[in-house]
Amino acid sequence: MASSGEETSSGSPGRAGSGTEPTSPESAAACSTQLDSTEDFEVLEEDEDDLSELPPLEDMGRARGPQQEDAQSSEQGQREAAEDPQEWLDVLGSGLLKKKTLVSGQGVESRPRKGQEVTVRLRATLEDGTVVEENPSLTFTLGDCDVLQALDLCVQLMEMRETALITSDAKYCYGAQGRSPDIPPNAPLTLEVELLEVQDAPDLELLSGKEKIGLANRKRERGNFYYQQADYVLAINSYDIALKVIGSSSKVDFTPDEEAELLDVKVKCLNNLAASQLKLDHYEAALKSCNLVLEHQPGNIKALFRKGKVLAQQGEYREAIPILKAALKLEPSNKTIHAELSKLVKKHADQKTVETEMYRKMLGNPSASSTPVKCKDKLTWSIPWKWLFGATAIALGGVALSVVIAARN
């Protein structure tokens, strides 16, 4: 119930485009990963010795024959050519992503544009030369982040029929998580890419029901991949694209089953979108995504749980508690909802105590044991004595006045 994503996601570039499968069982296994099943519902001193008199390293050791020297000079020439900074294009200006043309293409005008579908031949290797990906015909939409960022960014700079070498930091490949079992964490990759074909993307209005479902699912799965990589911005981007595919108008009639399946994919995308937005503390956006799910499925437990969590994060405990209770009623054995609800009830009680104390101070409502009450009691007893003293003084004054008048007469 509490999984952040709904279904398996793709961790391989070969899964992100036209649906082509990886070429090895190991790659296929790597692609069938799932999102988390639980929910957060988580200076050395320099050597100053003089080294100028030491012989150069290449002069050390045995003397080499002419053939060995020729072979070494050839290898050294190739290595220097490959490392020539004039031949490498620093794509992002940071040195983390570089591209070098191995075979020239058909001119700048033949470069693909964002939104077009491209087909490439791909070969990816680790630093030690181990091949971890090989696909003779990988198709994807350029600019949609359907594949590795390194590939998506560099293919935009390639010409038709060009073959290029791309060196990329792990940041633009599989990141800190890597891809089990063949790509370790924080592993840089070298990609050899040939641009084979460029064509306009299909018209969404003319897609059949199955085609639209397949396309939306591929975008959603790519979002799941980015969620696993903790790249929630790109995950949101992929889920948004999937929702745009589903919500696009159509000139083709769909069967009731296709309509139902499209709605199912939409709900999954919205739920995963809310999970990603929560990770970024985008509470208003996450609340909107949850409400969209609940419009279609009022009893969707994931949407209820996330909506309650969003409201709790905003301090709206009074509104959040009944929503979590509704989710718990649908799934009484769910420990995650139980824990969240218990925590929320305690926070609400603490909030009410603080509010009560604040209102008491604002309204000046003292307690029964405070000093003002004692003063009030003293005041109650002092009033009769004052009245009695005043009345006595008046009476005595009247008698004295009568005596004076009588004496004068």
Low-pLDDT runs of 5+ residues are: 1-5, 7-71, 77-85, 368-382
Tell how many strands the DSSP assignment holds. 6
Helix/strand/pairing class, anyone?
A: alpha+beta
How far is the N terminus from the C terminus?
A: 111 Å
The Rg value, from CA coordinates, equals 38 Å
Structural topology:
Elements: H1 25-31, H2 66-82, E1 89-90, E2 97-103, E3 117-125, E4 131-141, H3 149-155, E5 163-168, E6 189-199, H4 209-228, H5 232-247, H6 256-279, H7 283-296, H8 301-313, H9 317-330, H10 335-363, H11 371-408
Antiparallel strand pairs: 1-2, 2-5, 3-4, 3-6, 5-6
Helix pairs in contact: 4-5, 4-6, 5-6, 6-7, 6-8, 7-8, 8-9, 9-10
